[in-house]
Amino acid sequence: MASPFLQAFAEHMRVRRYAKRTIQTYQYWVANYIRFHGRQHPQHLHNAEVEQFLSYLANHRQMAVKSQATAMNALVYLYRDFLLRPLSLELNFVKSYHQSKLPVVLTSNEVATLLNRVPKQHLLCVSLLYGSGLRLMEALRLRVKDIDLDYCCIRV
């Protein structure tokens, strides 16, 4: 069960109509930040402690650039919008340099083999995912009205 502080933080974000997943992610990073600083209340922490935490993510946890950026965004939101004590614009922390893993690209034969093994009832959806770059939920929510046969395009 989340602490009353984290529950109030999540409620603050819900009132401002943030996505459920964003709220969960920001709660996760704020909770990690609090744990990192020995369960001190964020009201008693500020720039130096945020810099320590973000540097720790890069140096010791070897976080990807995007993960560190997400953690920083969560803390910026916490201090700017929830605690009303904005952080300095010039935070001095070690930035992650680890690049994301490159995607695996299949050869034409591998794609053909994959599509041949997909059950027939899923073939259209999988072909759309592969050929158009749609995300899973975009493909699953497609309706007939989204497909424009005159222009050979799909409206997402």
UniProtKB/TrEMBL annotation:
Pfam families tied to this protein: Phage_int_SAM_4 (PF13495)
InterPro entries: CB, DNA_brk_join_enz, Integrase-like_cat_sf, Integrase_catalytic, Integrase_recombinase_N, Integrase_SAM-like_N
The entry's keywords: DNA integration, DNA recombination, DNA-binding
Domain Core-binding (CB): 1-83
Domain Tyr recombinase: 101-156
Record protein name field: Phage integrase N-terminal SAM-like domain-containing protein
Organism: Shewanella avicenniae
